[in-house]
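queue> pop job 88
queue> type: inverse folding (structure -> sequence)
queue> payload:
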C-alpha cells in the first residue's frame, strides 16, 4: 500500500465541545513515521543487531519475520528505548530519538506492545486503559480515545469492569493493543501479538492492525512468527537472520522466497512451500 495523506481519527474535530471557553483547537501535529538506520545493539558482549535499516511510513505496516534468536525482539526494544542502541539512528517523525529513554520516546508518539501482553491483571479493563493514556492525561481527550479503542475492540467494552486477569488470552492481547492506543501514538510496534492465540482471534487482531493503518494512518512495525498472519496484512516484509536483514519485499514478492521458508522450516507455508498472502491467518 502506498501511504497517502492519512488522517487521524477525530482530527477533523476542530471545534472544541468542552463547554465554556470553547474555541478553535490547533490542528493536530502531522503523523510521524519511523526511520531506523544502521542500528546496532548488544547485550554485554553479545552483538545482536548488526546494522538494521527499516522505515515505516504513516499508513504503512511493515512485518519483521525471522527464526528464533534472529534479534526481532531486540530490534523493537532498541527502537522503543527499552535497550540503548550501541550505534545507528532511530528517527521518529524526523526527530532523532536514538539516545532517549523509553518514556520520552513514548511521549513522542511511539507505543510498544510487548510480547506476552503484560496487562495489569488485578486492575479492571477500564483502569488498564486509563493507565495507557497516562502520558496524555491532561489533554482532555481521554473519553474520545477510550471510545475509539472500544470501537476497535468491542469485546473489551462488554468486559470493561472485569479485572484484566479474568480475560482470555485473545482479549488480553486486545487490551494490550487498546492500552497502547490510549497514548495516541503515531507509531505502534508490536511483538508477536498472535502468540498462543486461536486462528479466529488472530484474524481479529490482524484485522485491527489493518484498521489502525488504514483508518488512523498509523505506522505499524509488527514482529510476527505467524508468517501467514504477517503476510496477510503487511505492505512490506523484512526477513531477519542473526541480527541482519537478509531480504525485504512485498508479501507477493517474497511468497516463494527460499529465505522466508528456511527461516521457518516450512511453518505457516502451504503444502508446496509457498506462502499465500491471502490465506486466512492461522497458527504458524
Ligand atoms: P524469538 O523469535 O525467539 O523471540 P528474537 O528474534 O526475538 O527471537 P531476540 O529475543 O531479540 O530474538 O534475541 C536475540 C539474541 O539475543 C538471542 O541470542 C538471545 O538469546 C539474546 N538475548 C535476548 N535478550 C537477552 C538478554 N536480556 N540478555 C542477554 N541476551 C539476550
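queue> result:
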Amino acid at each position: 500500500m502506498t501511504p497517502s495523506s492519512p488522517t487521524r481519527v477525530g482530527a477533523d474535530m476542530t471545534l472544541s465541545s468542552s463547554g465554556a471557553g470553547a474555541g478553535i483547537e490547533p490542528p493536530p501535529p502531522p503523523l510521524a513515521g519511523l526511520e531506523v538506520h544502521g542500528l546496532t545493539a548488544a547485550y554485554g558482549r553479545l552483538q545482536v543487531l548488526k546494522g538494521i535499516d527499516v522505515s515505516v511510513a504513516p499508513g504503512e505496516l511493515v512485518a519483521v519475520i525471522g527464526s528464533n534468536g534472529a534479534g526481532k525482539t531486540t530490534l523493537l526494544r532498541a527502537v522503543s528505548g527499552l535497550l540503548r542502541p550501541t550505534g545507528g539512528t532511530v528517527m521518529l517523525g524526523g526527530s532523532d530519538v536514538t539516545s532517549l529513554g523509553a518514556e520520552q520516546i513514548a511521549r513522542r508518539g511511539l507505543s510498544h506492545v510487548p510480547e506476552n501482553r503484560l496487562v495489569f491483571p488485578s486492575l479492571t479493563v477500564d483502569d488498564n486503559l486509563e493507565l495507557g493514556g497516562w502520558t496524555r492525561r491532561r489533554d482532555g481527550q481521554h473519553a474520545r480515545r477510550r471510545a475509539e479503542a472500544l470501537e476497535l475492540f468491542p469485546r473489551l467494552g462488554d468486559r470493561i469492569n472485569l479485572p484484566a486477569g479474568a480475560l482470555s488470552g485473545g482479549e488480553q492481547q486486545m487490551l494490550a493493543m487498546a492500552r497502547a492506543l490510549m497514548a495516541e501514538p503515531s507509531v505502534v510496534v508490536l511483538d508477536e501479538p498472535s502468540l498462543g492465540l486461536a486462528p479466529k482471534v488472530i484474524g481479529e487482531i490482524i484485522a485491527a492492525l489493518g484498521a489502525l493503518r488504514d483508518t488512523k494512518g498509523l505506522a505499524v512495525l509488527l514482529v510476527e512468527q505467524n508468517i501467514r498472519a504477517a503476510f496477510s496484512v503487511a505492505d512490506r516484509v523484512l526477513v531477519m537472520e542473526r541480527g541482519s536483514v537478509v531480504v525485504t519485499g512485498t508479501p507477493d514478492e517474497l511468497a516463494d522466497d527460499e529465505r522466508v521458508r528456511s527461516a521457518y522450516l516450512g511453518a505457516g507455508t502451504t503444502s508446496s512451500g509457498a506462502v499465500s498472502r491471502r490465506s486466512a491467518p492461522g497458527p504458524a
